[in-house]
Write a structure and sequence with these properties.
11 strands, Delta_CA, 2 domains, alpha+beta, 7-stranded mixed beta sheet, two-stranded antiparallel ribbon, about 375 residues, about 25% helix
Length: about 375
């Protein structure tokens, strides 16, 4: 029997054979996937390599820029010529008080509430917060014991680890003993208690020098309207460079006494140092601590006087006068770490303040006849 070429059976077999042929000659899509992955990985590797090289170049550039910046900053900090206040102190030598035709009011005096000096003057102290008179702090330093006298707060009845000084014929002060024998000391506060560990426990000082736990110190913040306020040169040692930074002798000679008292002043606050963190204050750099809750900077005496220090006495007068004094009448406890933080901040200043990282000697209490009769009382709130 013959086979019909149009037979459905032949058509089925032919289609089946063609399918088998197509299947055998055409590779599945999955056969190419490993090669695609390799190609993708190579591309990714190339991209990452280029990115890494780019980041490396950027990092080197940033490091070079940072090093250059540090070198520039280091050069700036060490270059006295870049310090516009360096050497601007106006020189006024101490004078024998008895030789002065017109007595110059002196500091530090008695600031006990109700006290009035005996030297008649026609100048009044600046009783505004100093910043309201365009003045800024230009230095901070402190004295061993208090230079000022506030009865019941810092006086001959206070105490400390090295004792106190008596109130002599005219409050003349004697040199202290032990390691402070080179410094003339002032009066002590009434807080010290040898049986309380916070007054006796040793503190590991990192930045301040020559400090003692339990001791009394009077801190001074000189302010000036002629300082380099708001710049890297604001704080200076010696403080005279900060006070006269933008004031030359020709201009100074045109100022009246009241102009000087309005534009130059010192804030003063007395502390007993303790090893107790509950008395920590983070910022002693910018001026007197004013804290209503703790009673700090609330009872302030105002008067006009002079610069202080143990090179002056009741025989040798300072000629940096008249300047305004704002003195906290109370003595306060403060932690040793507060002072050490202050010394750390001083080390960060553009000018070298290392000569103020330790206590200075105290002037003897100024006699009544050299203290101005313009005392005022006000708080700084």
């Amino acid at each position: 029997m013959g086979v019909n070429p149009q037979s459905p059976v032949l058509e089925l077999d032919h289609a089946h054979d063609q399918h088998l042929l197509d299947t055998m000659c055409t590779a599945p899509a999955s056969a190419f996937q490993p090669h695609d992955k390799i190609r993708d990985l190579r591309a990714a590797n190339l991209f990452l390599s280029l990115t890494t090289i780019g980041l490396f170049i950027v990092t080197l550039s940033l490091l070079a820029m940072e090093k250059q910046s540090q070198l520039c900053l280091h050069s700036l900090l060490l270059d006295d010529d870049a310090n516009v206040c360096n050497g601007t102190k106006l020189a006024f030598e101490n004078q024998l008080c008895a030789d002065l035709e017109v007595p110059a009011p002196q500091a530090g005096g008695n600031v006990t509430n109700g006290y009035i000096g005996a030297l008649e003057v026609d100048v009044v102290p600046n009783t505004l917060p100093f910043y309201q008179s365009s003045m800024c702090p230009v230095n901070v330093h402190w004295h061993l014991g208090s230079e000022h006298y506030s009865y019941g707060q810092f006086d001959e009845n206070g105490d400390g680890p090295h004792g106190n000084i008596p109130r002599p014929e005219w409050a003349a002060r004697t040199l202290t003993e032990d390691k402070h024998e080179e410094l003339q000391a002032g009066f002590r506060c009434h807080h010290y208690n040898a049986a309380d560990p916070k007054f006796t426990t040793t503190y590991d000082w990192k930045h301040c020098k020559g400090m003692d736990i339990g001791e009394t110190y009077e801190v001074h913040w000189p302010h000036s309207a002629s300082g380099a306020c708001g710049t890297v040169n604001q704080y200076q040692t010696p403080h005279y460079d900060g006070i006269f930074c933008k004031l030359d002798m020709d201009t100074f000679s045109t100022l009246a006494a009241q102009d000087i008292a309005n534009a130059i002043g010192v804030q003063s606050q007395v502390f007993t140092v303790v090893n107790d963190e509950s008395y920590f204050y983070p910022d002693m750099m910018r001026g007197m601590i004013v804290d209503e809750k703790m009673g700090m900077g609330q009872d302030v005496a105002f008067y006009t006087g002079s610069t202080t220090g143990d090179t002056r006495s009741n025989e040798v007068c300072s000629m940096y006068t008249p300047i305004t004094w704002q003195v906290d009448r109370k003595c306060h406890l403060i932690s040793a770490s507060s002072f050490d933080k202050l010394c750390y901040d001083m080390k960060l200043q553009r000018d070298d303040m290392s000569n103020d990282l330790h206590p200075h000697g105290s002037r003897e209490l100024v006699s009544d006849d050299l203290v101005a009769n313009n005392q005022a009382r006000k708080d700084l709130r």
